[in-house]
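2024-03-11 09:14:02 INFO receiving multi-entity request
2024-03-11 09:14:02 INFO entity count = two
2024-03-11 09:14:03 INFO echoing inputs for audit
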Amino acid sequence: MTATLTPVRSKRSALTKGQLPKYAPYVVLATALIIGAAVLALIGFNAFGWGILSAILFAAGLVGWSAAVEGSRKAKDKLATCLVVGSFLVALLPLVSVIWTVLVNGVPGIITPGFLTNSMNGVTGAYDNKAVEAGAPVLGGIYHALLGTVQITLLATVISVPVGLLTAVYLVEYGNDGRLARAITFFVDVMTGIPSIVAGLFAAAFFFAVVGPGTKTGAVAAVALSVLMIPVVVRSSEEMLKIVPNELREAAYALGVRKWRTILKVVIPTAISGIASGVTLAIARVIGETAPILVTAGFATNINNNVFGGWMASLPTFIYTQILNPTSPSNPGPSSQRAWGAALVLIILVMILNLGARLIARIFAPKTGR
Amino acid sequence: MSKRIDVKDLNVYYGNFLAVEDVSINIEAKSVTAFIGPSGCGKSTFLRTLNRMHEVLPGARVEGEVLLDGDNLYGPGVDPVTVRSQIGMVFQRPNPFPTMSIRDNVLAGVKLNNQKFSKGEADTLVERSLQGANLWNEVKDRLEKPGSGLSGGQQQRLCIARAIAVEPQVILMDEPCSALDPISTLAIEDLINELKDQYTVVIVTHNMQQAARVSDRTAFFNIAGTGKPGKLIEYGDTHTIFSNPTVKATEDYVSGRFG
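2024-03-11 09:21:47 INFO inference complete, emitting structure
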């Protein structure tokens, strides 16, 4: 037997087409940046225009080069990649910008001694004037607001989670898609769209009618927030309960387990990670609400440990009043510094909540190891 | 610890749709009974009526009598939960509880019903049930590991161990091997042979060789066409059904000339 040798073509395989070199995107990017800068230098340079122009030039250059060398399919692929990455950057821009602005403005507030441990009790415009004019330290802090936010949000969670979770359990396990279940689903959807100020007015009006006119406490704010939270909790818990396989319910029934115990011991534990992260996201959603708290809990400068009595400060309303009504109208600088500091603390709180949701999801997730 | 089942004139409905019509069958205690028939002929539906799992589906209902040693499962005042604790079930796809360890899966039936027992009793029960399901040697060193980490065949045997841990009178198996490879199937079939010393076993299968291998008696179900109710065509000793059936349709089905 003689082996037929196919001569190895020296140049390139018949299976490949032209390919752009690996460094192509970088070359195009550099060229686009240079041309963009040059063009803008003629009509007046600004960074924003430079970015936009360079991005367009980059996309056009890369796609054009690719079309010339690699053919139309690869060129379309490059175009799609440019669009996707571009959209991602556009979406990221405001986020990064917000975080950056808050960091830059908020850090001086946060590192002021006593910012996290003092309230605004007794801090008057005179101190702020002194801080600006004589360089004295900025007094006052957000302790009362932080405490208020934590108390109000905690109480709102305590109200919303049982109501929301039990509603979801009813919808998924007992509703059978009947008239009541469909009505609940409809009204939960409507509730999702309620403007937060309306929720605040509802809670305020409700307590005015039940307890007495002018009732403004942390608890009223918590009720307002739970009006906003419940639909979110219902929706997320419902989705999580729905994806629990029916087989698990049947397996439990077939062992002679009662329905409510099946739900309690099999269905909810299987879905708990999703439910927990849904609840955390719902908390993150309401923790920054301002309007409903203003009309329900009012505003305070002192520490209030009683969520059921007296006006109560919270971080969003603190920011709002510090910016709108600075402690010293002639020197708003210190107030604005405190407001930015509070904003940074609020963002950090939300971030911690999100990290907490991930942690909870990981802890409760069904185990798969061998 | 095993009871017989007598079914009298049972009609099974999904809403207004009659799925299985007029079945009467006597299932002996301590034997293996196989249900065979083409897809959609109602054998799984019928099996689920034997421990009142059928009514879990919305709109599903039943007319007729199912007697467990003379007690009607569908009599007034009968709690389906009591029925299901006496008549266990193993499903087509292995479904161990994903949040529980192997040990907790075996104990699920007892624990979820909130029965109190000591750790020693629990250990004994876990070992006895896993021994009974021929799984003890494979998992005894990793009882605290999650049940979902086992192979498909092991998971199915875990589900059988879970079912026998509640000490039922009857075990229903709905195509227990259809998701398994031949070796795991063999393990389950061996297990079924052992189980019949203590339990009444009813098995639905698409695999006629399997029915011939494991069962003492075989029931053949069939439907006349789409939308028609399924019916019990013939019921008798497995040997007779496979070698000398009296009905033409049965002969066609078991010899492969049908469907």
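2024-03-11 09:21:48 INFO post-check: The mean pLDDT of chain B is 88.
2024-03-11 09:21:48 INFO post-check: The longest helix of chain B spans residues 119-132.
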